[in-house]
Amino acid sequence: MQALQFRIHDWVTFKYEKKHIYTITDIYMEGETYTDLKKQTVYVFELIRQKDGYRTEAEQEELCLIHRPPFLQHLAMTNFYLALRQNYAIFRPDIHQKTQKKHATSIDEYLDQYNDYKILYEWFGDKQYYEKMQSVLKKIEHI
Question: Is 26 helix (H, G, I), strand (E, B) or coil?
Fold first, then answer.
């Protein structure tokens, strides 16, 4: 049996693209193949693009790990993805603003957000991540 390199909530990108970041939302076994008298299990990963919520699937060989959330963060994110799978209301702007206000109320949470955006900015150099870093710093100043 082939070992899984990724788990649910990992941030991944496609090896051949590396343009967008995806979050793994589900893993399922597609089937089994036999090569050289060895049984191999084929796993498919359901992905959601973080930028716009686009959903796609990929096999393990196509993906590259970017970030693995710590265990406690992994558990906290479960509620978000359960809501996402039940209905896509999380992407509606009015609901997103309400949930955004509930999160990030402590300095530790703001610093975690800042560090996440900083890593993304260093990796991809996207100005959007730099602007988000600055907005998080402004929120910290207001505390």
Answer: strand
User: Domains of the chain: which residue ranges?
Assistant: 11-67, 71-141
Half-sphere exposure of 7 (CA within 13 A, CB side): 8
* Residue tagged 């990796």 (tokens): 123
Q: Residue 93 is which amino acid? A: P
pLDDT tens, per residue, the chain with 143 residues: 457 888 888 889 999 888 899 999 988 887 777 777 777 788 899 999 988 889 999 998 899 988 887 754 555 555 555 555 555 444 444 544 544 455 446 787 888 888 888 888 888 788 888 998 898 888 888 77
Q: What are the two backbone dihedrals, phi and then psi, of residue 42, each rounded to the nearest 5 degrees?
A: -100, 120
Q: Which residue type occupies 86?
A: Q
Q: Where are the alpha helices (H) located in the chain, listed in sequence order?
A: 71-86, 93-102, 107-124, 127-141
* Beta bridge partner(s), residue 14: 63
First to last CA, the chain: 51
